[in-house]
Design brief:
Layout: H1 3-23, H2 42-48, H3 51-59, E1 77-81, E2 87-90, E3 102-104, E4 112-117, H4 123-127, E5 131-136, E6 142-149, E7 152-157, E8 162-166
Antiparallel strand pairs: 1-2, 1-8, 3-7, 4-5, 5-6, 6-7
Length: 169
């Protein structure tokens, strides 16, 4: 296979995954039977989060690209889960990709859980493909997905699920 064919295949696969991530709501982590350190009632989550944040974090939705300011904010700092304040990502691992979401090379150790995000009744099930979904280890909130973008395996994270705090001096 020529390098041009391989690059085209990676682009097509990545584009398909990105499009699927937008179109398919993720399986909610809260239904997996795991007991998280931080638990709240639905009413408590709704009081804590905006409607969009709740959709992303508790229902597994995906925000629109270029939403909010965090996706383009490359200042040094820590990125914590909006649901429980666990330090999940660091600006040290931020990857500059201009696609409208926040990208990281990896998470903090023991901060993120992964699960398989199967889409029901769509083309993904026909091929057996699935997305790798990331969740906060402490509260189970949906953060985003892991996939290849521009030949890099990255965590593609929704800004709605994070709060950035400046790096300590």
């Amino acid at each position: 296979m020529s390098p041009v064919t391989a690059s085209r295949r990676n682009f097509l696969i990545t584009s398909a995954l990105a499009g699927t991530a937008l179109a398919v709501p993720a399986r909610a982590a809260m239904s997996d039977g795991f007991t998280y350190e931080v638990t709240r009632s639905e009413a408590e989550w709704r009081a804590l989060l905006s409607a969009e944040q709740y959709s992303v974090m508790r229902e597994g939705g995906t925000e629109l690209p270029r939403n909010g300011d965090l996706w383009k904010d490359y200042a040094e700092g820590e990125f914590n889960c909006r649901g429980c304040d666990l330090h999940v990502y660091s600006s040290d691992w931020r990857v500059e990709i201009d696609k409208g979401w926040i990208f990281f090379g990896h998470s903090e150790p023991d901060a993120a859980l992964m699960s398989i995000d199967y889409a029901k009744d769509d083309a993904m099930n026909d091929t057996g493909d699935a997305l790798i979904e990331t969740h906060c280890r402490r509260c189970g909130s949906h953060l985003g997905h892991i996939f290849y973008v521009e030949d890099q395996l990255v965590h593609c994270i929704n800004a709605a699920s994070l709060v950035r705090t400046p790096k300590s001096a």
